[in-house]
Design goal:
CATH class: Mainly Beta
Largest sheet: 6 strands, antiparallel, barrel
Order of helices and strands: EEEEEEEE
Shape: globular
Low-confidence stretches: none
CATH superfamily: Bacteriophage SPP1 head-tail adaptor protein
Number of domains: 1
Number of helices: 0
Oligomer: single chain
Strand content: over 45%
CATH topology: Thrombin, subunit H
CATH architecture: Beta Barrel
Length: about 110
């Protein structure tokens, strides 16, 4: 089981929102509600994969947080000036914790 002492990384969780631009086109972004949480972070794997745009580097990580029913697949995580896209959420125990498997977000970089 996980202890509170293992939750030693401070992360930000952002929710995806849909807004309408000036010409009426819906656009998705991450300007919604923000939560800050303590988490444990483990790097699972990293390397590079060949894609349509050539060879792309990747890093897969796992964050463990106290259970929060609002955290879902429309969220992303920010830690240490880097965004992470959520790929899988696993409930641990009886809704005590959540393990969130992520990959580094390629959409944009954080400015700090």
């Amino acid at each position: 089981m996980i202890s509170a002492a293992q939750l030693n990384k401070f992360i930000t969780i952002e929710w995806e929102t849909t807004t309408v631009n000036a010409v009426g086109t819906p656009t998705e972004g991450y300007q919604g509600m923000v939560k800050e949480k303590w988490a444990e972070m483990r790097v699972l794997t990293g390397g590079s994969e060949y894609g349509g745009e050539g060879t792309l580097p990747f890093t897969r990580v796992e964050f463990t947080i106290r259970y929060d029913e609002e955290v879902n697949y429309k969220c992303r995580i920010k830690y240490d000036h880097q965004y992470y896209e959520i790929g899988h959420i696993e409930e641990v125990g009886r809704k005590h914790f959540q393990r969130i498997k992520c990959v580094v977000w390629e959409g944009e970089l954080s400015d700090g």
